[in-house]
Design brief:
Strand order of the largest sheet: 1-2
InterPro entries: CBASS_pafABC_assoc_protein, DeoR_HTH, HTH_11, WH-like_DNA-bd_sf, WH_DNA-bd_sf
Number of strands: 2
GO molecular function: DNA-binding transcription factor activity
Organism: Thioclava indica
Order of helices and strands: HHHEEHH
Structural class: mainly alpha
Keywords: Transcription, Transcription regulation
Strand content: 5-15%
Oligomer: single chain
Low-confidence stretches: 124-128
Largest sheet: 2 strands, antiparallel
Helix content: 40-55%
CATH architecture of the largest domain: Orthogonal Bundle
Pfam families: HTH_11
Radius of gyration: 18 Å
């Protein structure tokens, strides 16, 4: 299992809304407690709303994440436009959130083909 797969599994486990001790997560995932501590720090740094600490346990307090979505080229273009507008707002929290969201979306999309490179987020990736 790769580290990314493990991080995704931890988030999936935490979605039940219960407190989970590092020891239990480590046993379930076949890694050390120290690895879980590092993983929890990374998950938190990604902005996942995890609460807890070493020796106590970890819990996901509020909903996060969206179900998988299939977006059309036009929907991606609209989202790209709205995020670009939001990044220019005077509210620093909204601007930072828009920039972070745009980066997450770009990271999740397949690499653009050369003929699509000039089309921003939308490209032709949304249509496979």
């Amino acid at each position: 299992m790769t580290r990314d797969e493990r991080l995704q599994q931890i988030i999936a486990i935490l979605r039940d809304g219960k407190m989970h001790r590092a020891r239990d997560l480590a046993g379930r995932l076949g890694v050390s407690e120290r690895t879980i501590w590092r993983d929890m720090a990374e998950i938190s740094a990604y902005g996942v709303p995890v609460e807890g600490e070493r020796g106590v346990g970890y819990i996901l307090r509020r909903a996060m994440g969206l179900p998988p979505l299939v977006l059309t080229r036009e929907e991606l273009a609209a989202l790209d436009h709205l995020l670009t507008l939001a990044e220019t707002t005077t509210d620093p929290r909204i601007a930072a959130g828009a920039a972070s969201l745009a980066a997450k979306i770009r990271a999740a999309l397949p690499p653009p083909r050369p003929q699509d490179a000039a089309e921003g987020l939308a490209g032709d990736e949304a249509n496979g």
